[in-house]
């Protein structure tokens, strides 16, 4: 039991029996008892205070026993304590109340025991109820913590899958440039790769970044690809206010950009154009990525190729973070080009939010 819980118990225990003693005293006065009857009320409250501590210790000792054993132990303890309580009350009432007369029959003495048993059952019910409620709350908190930890582990796994995937593609491109004796471009790509990986590794996978920061990471990646494709790669990025200050999962757009480059640019001699449009629609952040490529059946979340890994990763990250409160769709209108649409709750960054409009428009 924690220090806070122990303190709360003693405060509640003292308040309950103090209130009981006061109520007993005024009830006695109402029944015509003398003013000195307070001594009996104090004794009654002190007996209850001490004897319920005995019950408490018994309950704590047997709390983790099988239910049947706990019931037998608790029932026996209640009866034993009630017998002691009733006996002490019978003795005290004749020594502290000279006007009180003994019961005319054994039923009167039985009433002392019955009253004590009723009081002990009421106290035990309250104690057990509070303890069970606290235990249930702790179990809920433990379950929530376990779920959060599982989600964090899953997010780490999904997030860290991006770096090897991207790194393989970039190193393969650098190798190609070296084989083609394009060493200056290869050196430039190594420098851009270093900057991108520094950003990627410095960010905690569970933390979110602003969309402006995410766009900055995308630009670093595109700077690498620009060295490969030159004028064949054309990009347009439009972020309307206040979408730039929205908090988004780090590198959530990275697999989408990689796939667009792969299917819309690298496979065509004339290259292609990639566009990113982000806006706030009500309480949702709406992001659309489209290209003018040929459209491909391979560009699907569950395909066996590289595209499937990245898109399935993005879909799963959104599911873990937002549950049913997100959208992720891919379509290829008229089999010309591909459009990927993401939507999830708009969360404004407390440190990045501003009233200034930031519109990003790049032409490559």
UniProtKB/TrEMBL annotation:
Domain Histidine kinase per the UniProt entry, residue ranges: 252-348
PROSITE patterns with a match to the protein in the record: HIS_KIN
Transmembrane spans: 9-31, 37-59, 71-94, 106-130
Superkingdom as given in the UniProt entry: Bacteria
InterPro entries on file: Bact_2-comp_sensor_kinase, HATPase_C_sf, HATPase_dom, His_kinase_dom, Sig_transdc_His_kin_internal
Keywords: Membrane, Transmembrane, Transmembrane helix
UniProt-recorded name of the protein: Histidine kinase domain-containing protein
